[in-house]
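Provenance and format

Records in this collection were gathered into a single text stream. Each protein contributes a sequence line and a token line. The two records reproduced below are adjacent in the stream.
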Amino acid sequence: MFSIIIPIYNSEYYLRDSIESVINQSIGFKENIELILIDDGSVDSSPQICEFFKNLYPNNIKILRIENSGPSTARNCGLSNVSEKSKIIGFLDSDDAFSQNALQSVYNFFVIPKM
């Protein structure tokens, strides 16, 4: 189980692509990924974009809101809300995206025994 934390501040132009890059992971989003979205006081449509995806995947996506405090505080807030069943925690900025096999590669590196 992966937990991916995305701190968000006024990222409406990039956020959809960022979230979709996590949802579309080859490892299987519904079965293996928890997405924690931290809205760091956005004043654009970022909160509505987060809610849209939360409604699609209510069991996989958490939304937390904090007063604007910066990305480090947002990341720490996300860390405090990771599920106990999570084995690997990752971070993604709201204007970045994962390649489709990113988490599968991480899993293969850290979990599959090497000969």
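Adjacent record:
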Amino acid sequence: MPTPKPKKSSFIQGAIAADFIGNSIAKHQSKTTIGAHNIFLGQVRADVIEGKPVTAIEYTAYEEMAEQSLYEIREAAFAKYELSCLHIYHSVGLVKTGEICLFVFVSAPRRKSVYEALQFLVEEIKEKAPIFGKELFEDESYTWKKNT
């Protein structure tokens, strides 16, 4: 039997706004069986590569394949940890230094699960999701980002 397709998009055009993050958290206040939340926010750094500072990253993804990969990562986390909710959002398009490009939000009845699950999720996303970043410099040159 084929793996089900994910239902909603994990991708957000451009930077992930603070109000989106805040609203996502606020929506969980009515879920009273949750005792702990944990979030990871990935931010674009102004790394200096070969003497040139990064000014932005342009993210691209083969979205259908990436959505399936993120779905499988989510399912693995639910199977491994006692979680109530789990959300993954990643930027596509241009994200400037200092802006948020990855938002992972986990909720569970107890705190231990959210700590362990969040670390697992971020590492799996970086390793397995077909999302690519082109680091852009002021002089309009670029290099492809390597996940570390």
